[in-house]
Design a protein that fits this description.
Elements lengths: L1 H14 L3 H22 L12
């Protein structure tokens, strides 16, 4: 999710210059970082102990 967010940010800012891609990229990036931090803390996310 983090990688997809970064790709959308790059495409939205540099290649296509579309603000909707930048917005979606930022949202995916933030969600990915939050899930990574919560997953590293040892808590279960959505009933799963690990995300593969």
């Amino acid at each position: 999710m983090i990688i997809l967010g970064v790709i959308l940010l790059i495409v939205g800012l540099v290649v296509a210059s579309l603000h909707i891609l930048v917005t979606i990229g930022v949202i995916l990036l933030v969600i990915g970082v939050v899930l990574a931090v919560v997953g590293r803390s040892g808590r279960t996310i959505g009933g799963r102990a690990h995300w593969y």
